[in-house]
Amino acid sequence: MEDPPHKRKRSVSDDEGYEPSLIGSSDLPGRAPPEVPSEGYQRSESWAKRPRRALLPREVELAKNICAEIGKIGEYPQQLSLDLENVSGSIAQEIDSDDYLRNSLLEFLVALTVEQPQKVFIVGALVQLTNFKNPKAGQYVLEYLHSKAQNLFEQIKVASDDVLESSECGVITRLKLILRLLAVLSPMMVSGDPITRTYEHLMELAVELQDNSVQRVAVAQLLYFNVLVSVPYYLAVQKDESFSDRVLAIARKFKLADVSEESRANYRHFKSPNRPYEAKELVKLILPALEAVDKELPFFVDLQQIIKSHEPEDVEKHLFQQFNIPSSEHWASYNLRGNIDSLWKYPRYVLECFLPSVTGFDTVPPVDSYLSIILRDVTQDIVQNMEFNRVTVSRQMLSLNVFFNEKLFSKPNSSIDKLTILNNLNSGVDLISSLENNEELDPQVKESMIQSATYVQQEFDQGYTSTWKMEQVVTEAVLDLMFHLPNAPSPSVYYQMLLADTCGRDWANVRRAPESEDKVTFAKVLGTAIRFFYSNFKYLDFELRERFVLWMTAQLSNFGFDWQWTEWIDDLNTLDKLFYHPAIYLFRNIIGREIRLSTPQTIKATLPPEFHRFLRLSLWDKRQVINFDSKLFGSKLAESAYETNFAAEENIEAIPEDAGNAEIYHIVDQYLFNSEDHPYHEVCHSIYTNIQEGESLQQFNDLIVLLKEQIARESAEHPGAEEYLIGNIDCYIVTLVIQSTCIIGSRSLSVVESGALELCGAKLRKVLGLPAAEGEHEDVENDQFPLLKAEEVVERQKWLIDGVLRLWNNEPRIGYLILERIKNKGFISSTQLVDSFFANNESLTMISQVYASELFDRMVTSSGSEAESKDLLQTFYSKIIEHIELLIEKLGDDREEMILGTVETEESADQDTELRWGLHGCFEIMRSKARKFASLTDFELLGERIEGGVRSEVARKYVAAIVDGIRTSAN
Amino acid sequence: MMSSDLKEFDAPNFRNSTFRLDRPSSYLLNKARRDEINGYSNLKKSMSSSTIYIGKLSFNTTEEQLFELFSNCGTIVKIIMGLDKHKLTPTGFCFIIFDTPSGALNSIKYLNKTKVNGRSMEIDLDPGFEEGRQFGRGPDGGQRQPQQQYGNRYDHGRRGELDKNGRSGYKNTRTRARGRNTYRDRQRHHTGPQNRENYLPPQQHESQGYSERRPEVPPHLVGQEFASNVSNQELPPHLR
């Protein structure tokens, strides 16, 4: 029926930028498209009329509608047969009618195969049903897939590096998925041989490629894995055991080349001999898994019956050409890139985070089973190949169970309690009668327990006997990507938000089904995963610790920062004295980042009092702050100001809701130049005003003269009174100018950047002893600021950095963000910032604060030149080596068990443990950065530095081995 | 009214099995459709400008918070907070400029509709920032249109070019009606220097930010702004 003209048609905007809910299926084939209203009608409408999407030609509308229908097939299993019947009918009828329509449909089928590979059997069934009705359609599909696959083979021969965008599916993965569809379609072919021969050929290639090298060949491993993982798809449609025997026979010849133990350690999620599980390499799991697979393939949805029921007597089969497969030389020189493919560049380990040790029984299929491997494979293909729409990805993840044999899994949102009952039922416990016979229970409790047990028993009798949770399977697959080493394939924020979205979507689903007994939401699954990572945090790779912090805070920030911190209080109490311990690192960084994403008031309300000390973000402790201030203002003012400020800072509840950062962190109170107890505050204020009002350099110079005179006079008049005495006038002036600049720009980063630093630039350069910038030259009479030698400038730049960090000590991350901008404007260098990360021997910022590590990465990746990045890295390495040396010296014991021994199991929280954790942090951050920036690291120079810098032999060998492992696998 | 041809932006996409989030929103599409001359080229620009627009932020969202959230999407060149054009306070929107288009596309793919300060952000691609767009264009100076009388079909004249989100566009052609805000202008003048939320970069001859140690003005002397949201009963007797 045509819409009346006044009724507003659904427009794109109704979809809110998400899933296009396409115009209803009532417009499907056979109906005339709505008439396009005449222009005259459109013109006569008032201006306020929302312009509509231009009405599309019939074939376009039709193609859209059919594709939308195809995309939905399978979501409702009960009407699967009907859907397949209807949609295949439309395709069979229309595919011949128009080129545009045909091409669109074929393109869409391939897109669906690549982006939603869980639906491959459905696409297969659809094409076969269509083929029954219109054999030409089947021919089109096979020809199109053939050309697509052949085209991909051709791309292997192309050496160019930038054919693919990094977010696009890699060539070999795409090939895997298209061949998989072809395998499923093989019953349509005169013979399945072209498919089986292709697989065998690819497997032989893999064997050959690996045989030609002693080292691990990434392409070979990927081919080997992709062929094996797809074999069951062919077996599901063709009961051809001989094929699987042949492929497996070739596969057994494949040499599973190992890299050195040192290299392997770089790609494992958990380090140390006490790690929670033995790391397993994916490539080594697939062959045994396939050998052990149940030949009935019970995990796939069996559509053969539906297909058979529609099969006419005489089916036309199609010829399928062999592929022209590139030779092994081409494969050998192919450089892996694109989604999924690039995961194979380095040894690929499987992440496990739902271990049976927690529950006592399996909640996910065993990691070495084919089912586990294929689910991970399919989920990761969905997640990566559809990264452009995280909404669809999360929707598909939540409904993944309907595309496999549902009864292999517990029902969605099943609780662990229910799974425990199921586990008992599986082992033959008659729960209901044992409950009924239990005399000790309160009758009411007993009643409700029996009720829920009966409910579980019913499900059990229906065949839902499994304790596996699909939610955990998909979560594990996503986390495996997020925590992939050395780099996650997409920015980690994608996985964070994907999981957060899935929680939200799942929560909405649960609320929508109030009658259901199963209410354990996806968020609980994430909670389990978070707890697993927490309890194994000390074994987790250093870089992954950072990614974990980002994930957990992103997750909490989307759900009101709600977390049960109380369960970690005991740990906090035992480890309280340690600074470098991973658990303390976690508390500090999670709470710190929560505050950065919201406000201290909000976060304080979510924390038990034991954790309140982490609300203080300061880098400098009381002693350091007072020391710094005493040098400028005398110890009396320094101490009294500290006490006053401290009290005010503790009173987080008093911060008004709309306060800006300057107010929240009491920035003005830290600016003691203005304190009335400081004898020079008046002239300091004049200098501040001079800077703020942008008055002339001459006036500024004159005020400095005035200041110096006043200091000289007053300190002579008050001998012995420390508040009048300024030890280092140059330092005093640099601090005054930079802190004034920061105060002027304290409203926000952009005010510092484009306001304050512009306004104060000339004066800053003056006090630093730097030459004037172009166009700001101004002759000054009685100039107080001669140009200085490089080393003098460096000293002043250090004062500048300290001045900023002191002022922003309550929120040093903002301090560093300001310093980053100061660096961008050329007042300081990036190496000086790296130095400052190591300035504090007792608490190295570099290994204890995620924001420092992030800033370091930003500086390396966005520096002006490669040489600068390399320099920066070398500064970092030499600093780390210096501190390894220092820590060992302090430890006073360089026996192997002290330096490399498993500090993870250390119970005591004494000074030695602290130093050993510091040492551990230095080793691990070295690994993390060398791995991340392997291409920018001069390994030879680094080797020399280690040789010359680390005296302890044990430590030297260990560090050299870490670096060596990275160097060999980076080549 | 003619609508302009948006070419590939209107063409259905069969290369993917589902909608792509890294495309201009329906808001931008509708806007472009109305704009015969620049509509299409603005859409093209929005795909490559490396700039995003973020709306529906809470007023206390800071640049630093946004930096923490968005720096994982790409290298941020600049964050421009949207300001109330009269009061120069944050008004719930901002622009972020990245160093490459992928930063902007990642943001819209991964962070659109996620929460900051408990509120879902609306992120959209943007054809590129121009000076002046940081100021809200609502008649009261904010970004959002004041209480809108929806459903009043005869009220078209006042609805102007603002959409349901109260967003104004990238064509800076609309001039504000003069004389409407004289009262507010006066008020702003009166309370201006005390406004703590002022985001404008420091300018000459205007005291900002760090305040001198002058005595606090007692509340009853502050003027109109005082106690507008406090009911009479809560005030001490001498101020009622």
Structural account:
The complex is a heterodimer of chains A (971) and B (240). Chain A is an all-alpha fold. Chain A folds into five domains: 1-54, no CATH class; 59-255 and 296-336, Alpha Horseshoe (Serine Threonine Protein Phosphatase 5, Tetratricopeptide repeat); 356-607, Alpha Horseshoe (Serine Threonine Protein Phosphatase 5, Tetratricopeptide repeat); 620-829, no CATH class; 840-971, no CATH class. Chain A has 45 helices and no strands. The longest helix of chain A is centred in the last third of the chain and has 26 residues, at 866-891. Residues 1-48 of chain A have low confidence and may be disordered. With 240 residues, chain B is an alpha+beta fold. Chain B has a domain at 7-145: RRM (RNA recognition motif) domain (Alpha-Beta Plaits, 2-Layer Sandwich). Helices cover 21% and strands 12% of the residues of chain B. Chain B has six helices and six strands; from the N terminus they run H-H-E-H-E-E-H-E-E-E-H-H. Chain B has helices at 26-34, 39-48, 63-70, 101-110, 156-159, 182-191; strands spanning 51-55, 76-83, 90-98, 115-116, 119-120, 122-125. In chain B, the strands form two sheets. Chain B has a four-stranded antiparallel β-sheet with strand order 2-3-1-6. Chain B has a two-stranded antiparallel sheet with strand order 4-5. In chain B, a hairpin with a 2-residue loop joins strand 4 and strand 5. The longest helix of chain B has 10 residues, at 39-48. The N and C termini of chain B lie far apart (57 Å). Chains A and B meet through helix 2, helix 4, helix 17, helix 22 and helix 24 of A and helix 1, helix 3, strand 2, helix 4 and strand 4 of B. Chain B: Keywords: mRNA processing, mRNA splicing, Nucleus, RNA-binding. Chain B: Belongs to the RRM NCBP2 family. Chain B: This is Nuclear cap-binding protein subunit 2. Chain B: Residues 153-166 have a biased composition (Basic and acidic residues).
